[in-house]
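Cross-check.
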Amino acid sequence: PRLEAHALEGRLAETESDLRGYLREAYKIGPARYLKVVAAASSPSQVAAGYRAIEALSLTEERRIESFRADRRLLDEVLADLQAQEGALWTLQAQLHGKARDLHVVRARKQSVLAGLQREQTSQKELLTDLVQVEQEVQTLLSRLAQPGPLEPVPSLGFARFRGLLEWPARGRLAVPYGNVRHPRFSTEVPHPGVDIAAAPGQDVRSVFDGRVVFSDWFKGYGQMVVIDHGDGYLSVYGHVDERLVTAGQDIGKGELIARSGEDGSFDQPGLYFEIRHDGRPEDPARWLRGAPGAVAGRKRPVAHDHRESRKAP
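Predicted model, tokenized:
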């Protein structure tokens, strides 16, 4: 359409120029030229011939004018069509720009999601690496604690005969069971060699059986921790406590108060973390404990949560 419009505009300009020239000449001569043609004729046949020549000239000019008008109408139609196409093109370009912006936003969101997934994957790998490292470190610690020390070894107390008969070390529901569990923040399975008891901060934590305290200190991944040796290779582990009320080397009786539950936990929730290990290998504590989760033997006493350093074991 654009080439056709250019061709029509050229033809119209040429025709318009010719018509302007014709009109100027006609204006200069005026109507008398037709009379001069008739007057110059010497016979009726010449008059008729002159009349026919004048008529042919008029018809030629009339056809030129009609052609000019037709070209003008056609040009108007072509220009209107061209304008409509240009409008449609602008609309299409605007839509394309909008889609390009939407695509840019989608790509940016996709990159953000991918970056988040990569960060989460990195965090998951770091978490699993830390958990493996903590497990190795606690295995090393427990192996070292199992070695003969300056004190007499803990005698056989018959711990194995009390499977399913031990009291729970603290009151509270079973929050996280033994075994591989899904981490609430990273949605990936992680090893969990003990159980989490949702004990409120400051509650009593009691020994599940007679034995000797072999560790009472802070430990990476377990927080403030107490470990009790029950003889025959059996150990009970109490992690994430707030107050440690016993010291290493201290003999402990069944149900004796050893700590207060803390505000930390294995999965960012307050509670007591509890393990039972035999020869360094973890076992499911729920198979050793009896009754409903958190049912503790002994007289119920009011919580006395005191953070003074003088009450904490070294």
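The longest helix spans residues 44-146. Residues 297-314 have pLDDT under 50 and may be disordered. Passed to J.P. for a second look.
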